[in-house]
Amino acid sequence: MSYHFKIFILLHFATIGFSQKEPIASYNFDGCRLSEQFQFTESAKSSKTPICGCGLENESLTFDGSQTVRFPSSLNQLFYDDFTIDFYVAIRPGALPVDILSVKAQCSLDSSINLRFLPQTEEILLEISQSSGSYNPLRSVIKRKCWNRITIVRQALNYTLYIDNEAVDIAQVGTQIIPGMNALISLSGSPCPNDAKLVGNVDQLNFYNVALNPVDLNSSFYFPNTIINQDTTVTQGSPVPMIVGASCFDSFIWKPAGSLSNSNTINNAIAMPQATTTYELLVNTNNCIDTSQVTIFVIDPENKRCDELFFPSAFTPNSDNLNDDIGISNSFIIDEIKHYEILDRWGGRITSYPEKTGRWDGIISGKEATTGSYMYNIRYVCDNKEYRSSGAFVLIR
Q1: Element containing residue 311 per DSSP (H, E)
Q2: Each residue of 334-390: pLDDT tens digit?
Q3: Separation CA 381–CA 390 (nearest Å)
Q4: Are 285 and 139 contained in the same domain?
Q5: Least CB-packed of 31, 79, 206, 374 within 10 Å?
Q6: Is there a single domain that holds both residue 108 and residue 149?
Q7: Could you tell me the CATH number of the domain that includes residue 261?
Q8: Are residue 214 and residue 231 in the same domain, yes or no?
């Protein structure tokens, strides 16, 4: 089990524990199984023997353009109230629109939900309709990766389409849309003959009877085949563990490999650059290549600038394990902290730290601080001389 997946598990169950937003049905398709992993409901059914492929961590369900997977009718209870359908998909398109997910009994606009990929425009199209007079399309160009996360959320009469945790389109419908009794939730199962069946893979399909929000999505993201490290500044020769998201890979390459130890592994590589270096990871999975990069800026400790204290200009404390707190980036120049505080926009003290390693997590008196500008004020000693540094930064939720 990878380091990041352990983090994901902790975050996932923390989310369940505090927000109670646990799925009512979850299918991870490991071992080609179509069973619901918590036995909350019945197994899905495939039109042919399931095939396994490389997934986010283990296996995923492979679609070869000829099969359909249908889910039990008990899941149709979702559509009577708020709901979320959340999954990862790897699409290998052809010339025709690709049927990904549908809830419809016949090829019409009556009481249906349809999710397709349009190869000509590189768009994901979500169609929500009660009848021909209440047709609501949600669409967005997709930055196609080996894996894309697609999330459909209904809250009251609002439908939101998320792609890779970003809300890309929203529609407000005029009435509740409840698919017909025979309209089962299906992967690659649309009854419309002009749609091509899916060629690709699906993994981590979850159904919720609540509307997930961006914080929920960010806290459970797998970061498929992606370097999680942020750009950072270190002293020459300092080790930097390279952390990679979920990756069930066919092959991978680190570049440059010269200053990486354990470059033959994807999750235990350690960078020790002697000069500023941009590292790139290329992952080949399901005959698709993902790339990601991180830059490690290197400072020679003999040439350090005591008057250059680096403090980030923004952070995003949304529990996604990326940029969740804020503090001094190059604390190695500090021999002693004299004063280190975080202030609100009016100059009121929020918190202070006795150590140079102090980092603020965006919490004020046990509550989440709001989006906006905040300030820092620092006095420190470097090479027997005292310096001051102050400035503003932005908290983004």
Answers
A1: none
A2: 999 999 999 998 899 999 999 999 999 999 999 999 888 899 999 999 999 999 999
A3: 15
A4: no
A5: 31
A6: yes
A7: 2.60.40.10
A8: no
In terms of Cα–Cα distance, which of 190, 222, 188, 185 is closest to 84? 185
285 and 388 in a common domain: no
Write down how long the chain is. 397
User: How many domains does the chain divide into?
Assistant: 3
Digit-coded pLDDT (tens) for 13-56: 333 333 458 999 999 999 999 999 998 899 999 999 999 998 99
- Host domain of residue 235: 223-303
* pLDDT (mean) for 156-174: 94
Per-residue pLDDT of 274-293, as tens digits, reads 899 999 999 988 778 899 99
Where do the DSSP E strands lie in 93-245? 98-103, 112-118, 123-129, 135-141, 148-155, 158-163, 166-172, 185-187, 196-197, 199-208, 232-235, 240-241
DSSP for 27-92, please give it: E--GGG--S-TT-SSPPPEESS--EEEE-SSSEEEEEESS--EE--GGGGGGGGS-EEEEEEEEE-
